[in-house]
Amino acid sequence: MSAVPPLEPALRLAVTLLHSYWVLQEPADQLSVARIRAAGRDLDLAEVTDPLGEDDLPRLRELRERLYQVFAAPDPAARLATLNGVLAEVSAGTAVESGPDATLRLTPLPRPGPVGPFAALVAGALARAAATGGTDRFGVCAADPCRAPYLDRTRAGRQRYCCELCNNRAAAAAYRSRSRRG
Ligand SMILES: [Zn+2]
Question: Could you give the C-alpha distances from 155 to 21, 95, 110, 123, 152, in angstroms and in order?
Answer without folding.
Answer: 27, 37, 36, 23, 9
